[in-house]
Write a structure and sequence with these properties.
The protein is 22% helix and 41% strand. The protein is an alpha+beta fold and 112 residues long.
Length: 112
């Protein structure tokens, strides 16, 4: 019984891993390693990030998703020099998720 459970866990892991690989190959976004900080305020959240010098940014797109929502929504498009964003429309007690995408001068997208 224990071996069956282990095999089921391994199979699930492989399926999830393969689906992530396929999704990543179909996406035109490249994930980059960077510093990212979040600061909580009263009714606001401050996001601060950095991008590598090797990326020559054109603009930065901020997406937000409230816990329970099905999709991320674009909330801001910023110049590439801007490395922070203050979200002021936060409901107290709600959980938010953010996605930051940098578009470079060649049209490539990088997810922070």
């Amino acid at each position: 019984m224990i071996n069956v459970t282990k095999n089921i866990k391994k199979a699930c892991f492989v399926v999830i891993w393969l689906s992530c690989l396929i999704r990543a190959e179909n996406s035109n976004e490249i994930a980059i390693s960077t510093d990212f900080s979040v600061y909580n305020g009263e009714g606001s959240i401050l996001l601060h990030w950095s991008i590598p010098d090797s990326i020559k940014g054109k603009n930065t797109i901020i997406y937000s998703q409230k816990f329970g929502d099905k999709e991320f929504k674009e909330i801001a498009v910023l110049p590439s020099e801007t490395l922070f964003f203050l979200e002021t429309n936060c409901d107290p007690g709600e959980r938010y998720f953010y996605k930051i995408v940098v578009q470079d001068i060649q049209g490539k997208f990088f997810t922070v």
